[in-house]
Specification:
The protein has two domains: 2-84; 89-155, PH-domain like. Helix content is 54%, strand content 19%. The protein has five helices and six strands, in the order H-H-H-H-E-E-E-E-E-E-H. The protein has helices at residues 2-16, 20-42, 49-63, 67-84, 143-155, and strands spanning 89-91, 95-98, 104-107, 111-117, 120-125, 130-134. The termini are far apart.
Length: 156
């Protein structure tokens, strides 16, 4: 999706820009970063080229006075970054580290119980709030052991 937005924005910019230097310079930069991102993607490497390309396109739109288009591209870049982020859940005897929907640390004394059943993590807080999240299946994780560990931590 992000690649399509970059391609469409660069192409649209060529047609709408009044300044000759901006008209071809920014889209060429966008296309170059798009190609770089695709090459790195094929090699299974992480790349920030797409994000840089989207931000450079938003900067180009800002220079031409098209604030709305720049804002839309920045919003789409932020959503793209959120969608490709790696989520994690880490438990130890002191706290729970969780990255979804945003990174935070939760102490065990605020949790009433935690259960993992069929890939669904359920956390109930002492204040009555409930949090549920699907967890990818991990063959090394045994649900019974996980639930027993969480139950012991919630009691102490």
């Amino acid at each position: 999706m992000g690649r399509f937005v970059l391609l469409a924005s660069a192409t649209l910019f060529i047609g709408l820009s009044d300044t000759e230097k901006l008209k071809y310079g920014w889209p060429v930069l966008g296309y170059t970063l798009l190609i770089l991102d695709l090459l790195l993607y094929k090699k299974n490497k992480s790349s920030t080229a797409l994000s840089i390309g989207l931000l450079s396109q938003s900067l180009a739109w800002t220079f031409t006075g098209q604030w709305v288009m720049a804002g839309v591209i920045i919003l789409l870049d932020a959503l793209h970054s959120l969608s490709i982020r790696t989520n994690y859940l880490k438990l130890d005897s002191k706290r729970i580290l969780i990255s979804f929907p945003w990174p935070r640390s939760i102490s065990w004394d605020t949790i009433d119980f935690i259960t993992l059943k069929d890939g669904m993590l359920t956390m109930e807080y002492r204040n009555g709030k409930v949090f549920q999240q699907l967890i990818e299946k991990d063959p090394s994780l045994r649900e019974a052991d996980f639930n027993e560990f969480c139950q012991q931590q919630c009691k102490s």
